[in-house]
């Protein structure tokens, strides 16, 4: 009697010939590139906001902002306080603005790169990629 396990053992012991395929990338879909760059930009925006929040919390916990206030107090007449400008809502609003600008820039850059690649394929013939089956 032959079981499924025996059949799978026979299949795994036999050597398969590896075939190599060489493909040429001659077109990048514009909207796919825009969607992919947008998703990458969203991930970058989340990382930006979280990292700014964590850095601000570390600076606030270590009282570095207060020490910088004392440092600036030595050079000014006391009219400028850094802690008045660096509080959590203002820092997070700045981080959100930077994240939104990065979102727009990275999405547009993805579209531009896809367009430039599609134009350059006409000159160079595309990117040659080799695949093998193991």
UniProtKB/TrEMBL annotation:
**A Pfam family matched by this chain, by name?**
DUF3566
Q: InterPro entries from the entry? A: DUF3566_TM
Keywords tagged on the record: Membrane, Transmembrane, Transmembrane helix
| Bilayer-crossing regions | 36-59, 94-117
Q: Domain DUF3566 spans what residues?
A: 19-132
Give the top-rank taxon of the lineage listed in the UniProt record for this protein: Bacteria
Q: What is this protein called?
A: DUF3566 domain-containing protein
